[in-house]
């Protein structure tokens, strides 16, 4: 039997979002500071930048974490990797290298609570099935997901979109059913959600942090002619076509 005190009922912790087995706690005040960083933390608090912590509650279920994300575990939960041999390890290392994510992500199974490392970044909880053909992530966003979520690699439509578009040739794609926790530099309140239905959006820069795998992503001139692109001052833009949605940051 495990009894946890001064965490779930702590008045300084507030649940700001909950979805599936994931719950996001936000510290209302940060008391673990020293005088040298107190001014910076004060202004962070005034701007609403507060320390957050994700808690995963497993009930005979599983979840996958980014390597090093776990802080502590309470309950009958076992950790393992999904590496099936040397060949599989090599494949995952290659996949991790091209996607910019950790090659081996630990899998946790059982019943209990997993508490992740605290962060000052913003946490986004997404239902993977809400994204057509899967959820493609910008590098470094993945934090955790349900064990039912499949991880694969999404390849850019063409090499030019990787070189000129600033997004990279490969990205991590989450598919199937379940919830994913993303660690975002931007709060949900500032992210622009664009829903496309057999349409197109052109973005001047790599402002998209997540998009549906159903969308075709290319990089093109902002104008049909080279002279026109020069006159507009935009040059190349990232173009998303098809049906799906995009989460776009206000700044990069």
What's the layout of helices and strands?
Blueprint: E1 13-19, E2 22-27, H1 38-46, E3 52-65, E4 70-80, H2 86-99, E5 107-116, E6 122-127, E7 135-137, E8 142-146, E9 149-155, H3 159-165, E10 170-176, E11 179-184, E12 192-203, E13 208-212, E14 216-221, H4 226-232, E15 236-248
List unreliable stretches of 5+ residues.
Answer: 84-90, 226-233
Strand content: over 45%
Separation, N- and C-terminal Cα atoms: 47 Å
Give the second-level CATH assignment, the architecture. 4-Layer Sandwich
Helix/strand class: mainly beta
CATH class: Alpha Beta
What does the oligomeric state look like here?
single chain
Chain-averaged pLDDT: 85
The shape, in one word, is: globular
Describe the 3D structure.
With 252 residues, the protein is mainly beta. The protein has a single domain, classed as 4-Layer Sandwich (Double-stranded beta-helix), CATH 3.60.160. The protein is built from 4 helices and 15 strands. The protein has helices at residues 38-46, 86-99, 159-165, 226-232, and strands at 13-19, 22-27, 52-65, 70-80, 107-116, 122-127, 135-137, 142-146, 149-155, 170-176, 179-184, 192-203, 208-212, 216-221, 236-248. Strand 1 (13-19) and strand 2 form a beta hairpin. The relative contact order is 0.15. Residues 84-90 and 226-233 have low confidence and may be disordered.
């Amino acid at each position: 039997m495990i009894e946890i005190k001064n965490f779930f009922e702590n008045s300084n912790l507030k649940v700001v979002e909950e979805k599936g087995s994931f719950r996001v706690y936000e510290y209302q005040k940060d008391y673990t500071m020293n005088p040298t960083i107190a001014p910076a933390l004060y202004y962070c608090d005034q701007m609403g930048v507060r320390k957050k912590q994700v808690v995963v509650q497993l009930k005979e279920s599983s979840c996958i974490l980014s390597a090093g994300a776990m802080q502590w575990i309470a309950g009958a939960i076992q950790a393992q990797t999904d590496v099936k041999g040397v060949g599989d390890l090599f494949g995952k290392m290659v996949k991790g290298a091209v996607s910019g994510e950790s090659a081996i992500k630990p899998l946790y199974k059982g019943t209990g609570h997993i508490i992740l490392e605290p962060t000052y970044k913003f946490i986004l909880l997404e239902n993977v099935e809400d994204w057509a053909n899967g959820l493609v992530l910008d590098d470094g966003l993945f934090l955790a997901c349900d064990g039912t979520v499949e991880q694969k690699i999404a390849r850019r439509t063409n090499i030019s979109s990787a070189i000129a578009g600033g997004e990279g040739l490969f990205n991590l794609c989450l598919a199937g059913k379940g919830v994913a926790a993303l660690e975002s530099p931007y709060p949900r309140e500032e992210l622009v959600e664009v829903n496309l239905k057999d349409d197109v959006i052109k973005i001047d820069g790599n402002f998209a942090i997540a998009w549906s795998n159903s969308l075709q992503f290319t990089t093109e001139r902002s104008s049909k002619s080279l002279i026109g692109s020069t006159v507009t001052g935009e040059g190349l833009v990232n173009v998303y076509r098809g049906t799906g949605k995009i989460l776009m940051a206000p700044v990069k």
